Fold this sequence. Notes:
By secondary structure, this protein is α+β, with helices and mostly antiparallel strands. The chain is built from nine helices and eight strands.
Amino acid sequence: MTSNNRYMLSSVKNALRLLRSFTLEEPEKKVTDLAESLGLGKSTVSRLLSTLESEGFVIKDEETRKYRLGLSILHLNTVLTSHLEITRESQPVLEQLVNEVEETAHVAQLEDMEVIYVNRVECRHPVRILSHIGRRNPLHCTSSGKVLLAFQGDHKVELYIDQKGLQPYTLKTITDPEKLKMELETIKKQGYAISIEERMEGVTSIAAPIKDYTGKVKYALTVIGPVHRMNPYHPQMIHKVINAAKEISERLGYWRN
């Protein structure tokens, strides 16, 4: 590989890192902010932004001198989600579930030892929670994350604990490895997971596994709401979430005995 090719690949990687640095919490950033967070020179960041801006991937606010993501990102997202099988098959099930439980529902999957949300249907009275489409969250303190981790096997659980750690996000976050392992075993036996203020105060959730045609747990169906309104331990809620997850599994080709 020539030095020029290596430079081009490095530039592409840095451009992708730059795009991923924009978050829901920080949707707008200045050149200096991006340079500092990415560990790049301001001139390098400026060149990358100019290129991305010319293609509509970022937009510059001339008054604040800050950049934000452009509409080209939305176009790519639309193309991707419209062709994802899990999005197509889960959409009607999520809509029906949200109509019944009157809380927001999501589908999440495991990626790079994090949970990422790939589909979402909001209820009529949503609350601000950390679970928008594309959002990444830890595994050990979210119901969807615990479901996905529970069915990965002991080796993956140990790997997650060693590499990611059990960071406390609230006073209720599980930080004891043995306690987490015990809960994961319970989740496998009962077929669902519950998280009450483990990731974010005031928020609770319940999740159940979604299987693909091979019987492998590939996704998790989650219902999320505020603690003052939603009781994840209610038998009817548990029943509806588990059944909805099973319905999506069947739509993906899984045949249960």
